[in-house]
Structure formats: structure tokens, C-alpha cells
Amino acid sequence: MNSREVVLGRIRAALADVPAEETPDGTSNGTSHGTSAGTDSGTSRAATAHRGYRRGHAEPGQDLVALFAERVADYRATVTRTDPAGLPGAIAAALTARGATRLALPDGFPPGLLPPGDWQWQREPLDVPALDAVDGALTLAAVGIAVTGTVVLDTGPGQGRRALTLVPDYHLCVVRAEQIVDDVPEALARLDPRLPLTFVSGPSATSDIELDRVEGVHGPRTLDVIVVGAPAAAADRATASTSTPAPSAATDAAPGPKTPEQP
To answer: What's the CATH code, domain 64-241?
Structure first.
């Protein structure tokens, strides 16, 4: 028996008296497949298991798209809001602003969303050296979380495998307004836990013991997000900061190829 089997065995033993129909929020239809200490045989433990967790932190009636844009910008990312007709133009504008012309493009990305022009779309299969050579990656998303300013990828159509958005130094992500939810519990309810999920909260950043911020260590150092569905307006473009932080010794050196933590 290996360590994995030991851990899973202990989990199963701990859950032996939990009704099969009980959901994570504690609801059940009352059918039990075991007994609990101090209860009669056949009595559903779910009757006392309702937890009543708070599932959201946005204010009632709050504009989730605006909150999402604000929180994403707090991470030094850039958010652009547009309507469906303006999406190709918004993609072109974002790529032009970053000087990106050679982009990794995942399988399933809708061709009708791509802007016209001399863009070099690099399609799978792409190995790590090929991914490291592109200017960035253009993807869709599975869910956006307003309160945390998080984009979630689940490797679905138009999103690609994890390496596609971890190796390139720039990530441009398209999120539909209807994909944006209040908080993490609502996001999890929309996601399939069997899929490899990647939660992206701003560009990759870390700090050492001296609190020197270093970006781009574990993923792209630059993140742009386009939200589709909200009215396009010049005031809708939100940027976390227009100033560039003073480079530290750790960021002065030219970045080398990054190896993905999870291919």
C-alpha cells in the first residue's frame, strides 16, 4: 500500500457516515447509508450538517463586471471592456500596445474573434522552446471571479493546456461578462473538479525576504484581460498603475526560458 492509498483510505473512513446525497453546502434528501455516533440507525446526519456558509462578498446589486475590472487592475493587470463587435479590434489594440505579433493560440479558439492583419498565430503542438519563443498567448477563460479579480482556466476549448499560459511572458485573456461570478463558491459550482484548473490572479509575482517584488517567475509577467459584453467606452479601460516600479537586481537580468511547473 502506497501513501496515496493510505491517505484516500483515511478520507473514506472519515466520510463513512456521511449521507451519499449530502452536498458540500450540507443539503441532503435525508437518505443515509450509515450511522453517526450518538444517532439512531438510518438517521440522516445532514439534518444537523447545514453549514450556512457565506457564498459571496459583493454588495447586493453591485456591478460584478465593474468590480472584476477593478480587482484585476489592482494586480497591475490591464482590463479592457468591449462589446462582441469590438472584440477583434480590442485584441488587435492590446497586442499592438504590447508589441506582440507572434502568439500561441490554443485549439478551439473561435477564428471569427481573431483580428485581421499580419499576426503570426502559433498553434499546437508547441514544445517548451517554441512557447518560450512566442511573444505571448491569447486564450479564452472558463470563469471570472469578481471579488478576487481572478480568471480561471480549465483547459477547455480556446484555453489550452497549462504550459500554454505559463511559459510565454505575456497572456491576453478574453472573458465574457456572463462568465463573471461573485465569489469563489459560485465559481467552483460552475467548474468541473476533474479538470486541471488554473486560477490566475494578476501577472506572476513573488517577493523575497526583503520584500523585493519579482514578476514573471512562475508565469507571465504581463496580463491583459478583455471583458466582452459590457458597453465599450474610453473610461472603461482600467489600469492598475501607469508607473513602472524601479527594477531590482533580480529583475535587471534578461529572463531565461521558463519551464512549466505543470505541463
So the answer is: 3.40.50.10420
